[in-house]
Write a structure and sequence with these properties.
The complex is a heterodimer. By secondary structure, chain A is of the alpha/beta class. Chain A has 12 helices and 17 strands. The longest helix of chain A is centred in the last third of the chain and has 20 residues. Chain A starts with 12 loop residues before the first strand and ends with a helix. By secondary structure, chain B is α+β, with helices and mostly antiparallel strands. Helices cover about 40% and strands about 10% of the residues of chain B. Chain B has a 4-stranded antiparallel β-sheet with strand order 1-2-3-4, covered by helices on one side. In chain B, a hairpin with a 2-residue loop joins strand 2 and strand 3. The N terminus of chain B is likely disordered. Classes of the chains: A alpha/beta, B alpha+beta.
Chain lengths: ~525, ~170
C-alpha cells in the first residue's frame, strides 16, 4: 500500500530528488519506518518505456530546463545552454549512468593533506575517511550488485573492450579489467543479466543495470512509508521563525503550487539544482540563501577532468555492440606528482552511437577532416577519461537573474574554468589514451573534448568546520539542523572515480544517522 | 571553369536539364527539384527550387560523405522549406552566392571544386546562417535511421535480444 501524506503533515521527511542520493535515502528511511515524501521534478519511466535511440531518449529523459554557462571550459562554447547531461525522471540520473562503481582511494578523502597547497585550488580534507566509509561502500556494492565485488563475477569483454585491453597491455598497464559495474553479470536481486544490448545511457531495458527507478523507489513504496510525487518541481524551501526548515514549496505538473510541511528536508537535486534551490530560498533571515553562512553554497563546482579518445583502425571494431562502459584501466588513478599534476585519472571504455558521435566527436567540426572520421565509424574504438579536478571557489553555480525558468525563477549559471592541474592531467590522459590505441595499430586518433557534465559535484561541500563548507560529516547543514544535503554536491573533493557508488554509500549512511537521531529525539 | 561533380550515367532528360542543373540536384520545374540520377525528387513550397539545390550542395560540402546519396542531404534540409524559415534561408543563400562571386565564381553551386566551395564556407563559418545549417545537419543528417547502415551502424538490438548472441565480442583481429 503506497503511502499518501497530507500537505499539512509536518512529521514527514521530505526528500527532494529521487536519484542515486534521494532515491536511495528515501527507500532506506522508509525501510526503517520513517515517513517520507519524495518530490521528483520528472515523470516515471520504467524499462519498458526506455527508448534505444539516442536523441529520442535524450528528449524523453534529459533535464532541459533553462541554464546558462560561463568560463573558459569548452562546454560553454559547444553546449552553452546545456552544461550538464543529467536526467529529469523518477530515479534521476541512475537511469542514464553507465554503472561504473568504484570506491574512492584513501588519499582522495584527504587531498589537502596529501597534495599540499595547490595554487588556486580550494582543497580541503573530507571530515570522513575511507576506513569509516568501507562498511557503507560494502552495503552500497551489495545493493547495486557491483561486479568484481563480493562474490560477483565480472562482465564479459565486448569488442570495444578487447581493443582497449590489448592496447593497455602492450603499453604495460596491469590494472585492466571489465570494470566494477552495477550491471549484472548474472541474474541478481530480481534483475536480469546483461544482454550486451548497448544503450546503457538511455535506460537499461533489461533492468540489468541498477537504477533507483525500479529498485529502491518501488521497494520504498512497498513499505507503505514512502510517497513519491512525480512531476513535482520544488521551488523553495521554507523555514520557521526559529530558522528551522518547515516545508517545501513545489509546483505540480499543472503548475499549481503546494506547500508540503516537513520535519526534516533532504536536498538531492544534483549539484546544479541543489545549490540553486538553497540560493532561491533566500529570506530576510537568510538573505544569502539557506545554509550559506560560509558563503560556500554553489562554490567549488567540480565536474571531473574529462575528455575522450576515439581511434580508427583498419578493420572493424563495432564498438556500439555491448555495454557502453565496458572496461577500465586504473594504473593512472594513483597520486604521482612526477607526472606533472596532483591526483589521478581512470580510463574507461565508452561507445557512442552514430548520432551522438556526430554531435560529440568534435563539436562544431565540419568538412572532410570531420566526416572521414565518421566514415570509419564502424572501425572506431573509444574511451572516456575521468580524473580528479581541482575545487575552485570561483567555479560556481549562481542565480542568473536575466534568465528565468518555466516557473519564473532565476535559472542557474554554471561557471567553470579549467585549473592548470586539470589541463595538465587532461594532456597526460590524452597522450596515454592515444598511446593505448596506437599500440594496437590505430590509423588515426581523436582527443575529443569534454561532453556536458554528468558528474556534477561539490557545490554544498562537506567540511569539518562550518566556515569551510556547507554540511558536516553527515550531510547535515552546519546552519540548519533539520536540513540535509544528500547528493554529490556534498563532496568535499571529487576523486578520480565515478561518483555514484559514493553518493549511494553516503545516502545509506545518512539514512542510518537521520533515523537514529529521530529516534533519539534530536531531530 | 565549371566542373560537373557527378557526371555518372545521366539520362537524356537529365542532360537536357543541365541547362538548369545545379550541383547534385537539378530544377525540374517550378517548385520541384530532383537528384541528378533521378533517384529522388522533392517539391519545395516556400524556398526557390534553386535555393534548395544550393542548400543541398552546401549540406554536402559541410558534411561530405561520398557514400551517402543526395536524398539524405535533401531530407536533412527539407525542414527549412517553410514560410517561417524561407526568408532567412533565402538571404543566407544570397550571401553565399555573393561570397562566391567575390571569389570569382558565378555562384556557389556553379563553383566546381569542393575545395573552392569549402573556401567560401570557411569565409562565412561564424555567420548565424552557416551555424544554423551546420547545427541542424548534426541531427538532420546523422539521425536519419536510413543513413545508419551506410556507416555500418546497427542501432538498437533489444528487439533481437541484445548483441550477446549477435557479435558483441566477435572481433577477430586483435
Amino acid at each position: 500500500m503506497v503511502a499518501k501524506y497530507d500537505l499539512n503533515d509536518d512529521t514527514v521527511v521530505v526528500v527532494i530528488g529521487t536519484g542515486a542520493g534521494g532515491g536511495v535515502l528515501a527507500n532506506e528511511l522508509a525501510q526503517k519506518g520513517v515517513k517520507v515524501v519524495a518530490l521528483e521534478a520528472g515523470g516515471r519511466y520504467l524499462p519498458e518505456d526506455y527508448v534505444n535511440d539516442e536523441w529520442d531518449s535524450f528528449g524523453q529523459l534529459a533535464w532541459l530546463d533553462a541554464r546558462s554557462t560561463s568560463g573558459d571550459w569548452r562546454v560553454a562554447k559547444d553546449f552553452s545552454g546545456l552544461p550538464a547531461w543529467i536526467v529529469k525522471a523518477v530515479g534521476g540520473t541512475t537511469t542514464h549512468w553507465a554503472g561504473a562503481s568504484l570506491r574512492f582511494q584513501a588519499h582522495e578523502f584527504k587531498t589537502k593533506t596529501t597534495y599540499g597547497d595547490v595554487q588556486g585550488a580550494n582543497l580541503l580534507d573530507w571530515p570522513i575517511d575511507l576506513a569509516e566509509m568501507e562498511p557503507w561502500y560494502e552495503k552500497a556494492e551489495t545493493k547495486l550488485g557491483v561486479t568484481r565485488t563480493g562474490d560477483r563475477e565480472g562482465l564479459p569483454g565486448c569488442n570495444n573492450y578487447k581493443v582497449f585491453e590489448a592496447g593497455a597491455k602492450k603499453l604495460g598497464y596491469s590494472e585492466v579489467h571489465t570494470g566494477r559495474m552495477a550491471i549484472n553479470s548474472v541474474e541478481y536481486d530480481g534483475r536480469s543479466a546483461c544482454q550486451q544490448t548497448g544503450f546503457c545511457f538511455q535506460g537499461c531495458k533489461w533492468g540489468a543495470k541498477w537504477s533507483a527507478a525500479y529498485t529502491d523507489i518501488p521497494r520504498g513504496e512497498a513499505t507503505g512509508n514512502l510517497e513519491v510525487r512525480e512531476r513535482a518541481h520544488v521551488l523553495k524551501i521554507e523555514h520557521d521563525a526559529s530558522g528551522k526548515a518547515s516545508g517545501v514549496l513545489y509546483a505540480d505538473q499543472d503548475g499549481n503550487q503546494h506547500l508540503q510541511k516537513a520535519r526534516i528536508v533532504c536536498v538531492a537535486g544534483n549539484s546544479i539544482e541543489s545549490p540553486r534551490l538553497l540560493l532561491n530560498s533566500a529570506s530576510s533571515m537568510f538573505p544569502d540563501g539557506l545554509a550559506n553562512s560560509s558563503g560556500q553554497v554553489g562554490r567549488n563546482y567540480m565536474r571531473h577532468m574529462t575528455g575522450s579518445v576515439y581511434a580508427v583502425f583498419d578493420k572493424p571494431v563495432r564498438m556500439w555492440r555491448g555495454t557502453t562502459m565496458a572496461g577500465i584501466i586504473q594504473d593512472e588513478s594513483r597520486h604521482d606528482p612526477s607526472r606533472g599534476f596532483v591526483g589521478g585519472y581512470e580510463l574507461e571504455t565508452l561507445a557512442l552511437g552514430l548520432p551522438f558521435m556526430a554531435a560529440f566527436l568534435d563539436p562544431g567540426g565540419w568538412g572532410r577532416e570531420f566526416t572521414t572520421a565518421l566514415d570509419s565509424y564502424e572501425n572506431m574504438a573509444g574511451m572516456w577519461i575521468v580524473g580528479e579536478d581541482m575545487p575552485q571557489e570561483t567555479n560556481r553555480i549562481t542565480l542568473n537573474h536575466d534568465l528565468k525558468d518555466q516557473y519564473g525563477l532565476p535559472a542557474p549559471n554554471v561557471h567553470f574554468d579549467d585549473h592548470p592541474n586539470d589541463k595538465a592531467m587532461r594532456a597526460h590522459a590524452y597522450k596515454q589514451g592515444m598511446a593505448v590505441y596506437d599500440a594496437v595499430g590505430a590509423t588515426r586518433t581523436f582527443p575529443t573534448p569534454p561532453y556536458p557534465s554528468t558528474h556534477n559535484l561539490g557545490t554544498n561541500r562537506m567540511a569539518e568546520n562550518a566556515r569551510d563548507g556547507v554540511v558536516n560529516r553527515w550531510g547535515q547543514t552546519h546552519d540548519i539542523d533539520n536540513l540535509f544535503i544528500s547528493d554529490g554536491s556534498q563532496f568535499t573533493t571529487g576523486a578520480a572515480e565515478n561518483p555514484t557508488l559514493t553518493i549511494v554509500a553516503l545516502a545509506i549512511r545518512q539514512a542510518d544517522h537521520i533515523a537514529s537521531e529521530m529516534g533519539a529525539g534530536n531531530l | 571553369m565549371t566542373v560537373q561533380t557527378k557526371p555518372k550515367g545521366m539520362t537524356r532528360r537529365q542532360l537536357l536539364s543541365r541547362s538548369v542543373a545545379m550541383g547534385a540536384a537539378f530544377v525540374a520545374g517550378p517548385g520541384f527539384i530532383a537528384g541528378s540520377d533521378a533517384a529522388w525528387a522533392m517539391e519545395t513550397t516556400a524556398l526557390q527550387p534553386a535555393s534548395m539545390a544550393t542548400l543541398i550542395q552546401m549540406a554536402r560540402d559541410i558534411y561530405p560523405h561520398d557514400r551517402v546519396g543526395d536524398e539524405f542531404y535533401a531530407a536533412a534540409v527539407k525542414a527549412y522549406d517553410t514560410e517561417d524559415a524561407a526568408p532567412e534561408i533565402e538571404a543566407g543563400i544570397a550571401a553565399l552566392d555573393a561570397a562566391a562571386r567575390g571569389k570569382g565564381h558565378a555562384s556557389y553551386i556553379e563553383t566546381g571544386w569542393e575545395r573552392d566551395r569549402v573556401d567560401i564556407l570557411r569565409g562565412m563559418e561564424d555567420s548565424t546562417f552557416f551555424q544554423r545549417i551546420r547545427g541542424g545537419l548534426v541531427t538532420g543528417l546523422y539521425n536519419q535511421k536510413a543513413v545508419w547502415p551506410l556507416f555500418g551502424y546497427e542501432g538498437e538490438s533489444f528487439s533481437q535480444g541484445g548483441y550477446i548472441d549477435h557479435g558483441f565480442d566477435d572481433i577477430n583481429w586483435i
